Amino acid sequence: MTVTNNVTRMLDARKVKYTAHVLPEEKLGAKQAAQLIGVPSEVVFKTIVAVRATPGKPILAVIPGDQELNLKLLAKSIGDKKVKLASHQQAESLTGLQTGGISPLALINKGFQVLVDSSALSHPAIFVSGGQRGLNIEITPQDLLAITSARTAALCSD
Prior knowledge:
- The protein is α/β, with parallel strands linked by helices.
- The chain has one domain (about 5-150): Alpha-Beta Complex (YbaK protein), CATH 3.90.960.
- Helices cover about 25% and strands about 25% of the residues.
- The protein is built from 5 helices and 8 strands.
- The strands form 2 sheets. The chain has a 5-stranded mixed beta sheet with strand order 4-2-3-5-8, covered by helices on one side. A 3-stranded antiparallel beta sheet has the order 1-7-6.
């Protein structure tokens, strides 16, 4: 079954190689998605919405599914003193997407600063949400960084 949405249309238009993986449309965690796809959870990346303590763009932190976001590392990587996690309601309001379907690929040019955990570069491909629940996109980290104008940083504690 093929799923077509704004993300897949954008990737097709830019001639980016990707593989779409269709999953159940309920809210799944990255670890559950990894099990269903049949890959290790460290290659299924989750997108976490964070907000600054000072005025500025909201942040999309893209981290491995088996890790937790370190807010101090995130703040340091953007040159801010403090950031906090957006609530589920705030994340959905800021992105216009349901939690479980928030994707940096769906939010290009929407005013977010995107940071991807540097561990992504150690994998030939990673999996990120396709902009809706039930769709994961397998893509090279280099393509994800280029398309989203993201930069890498250490975002998770050891």
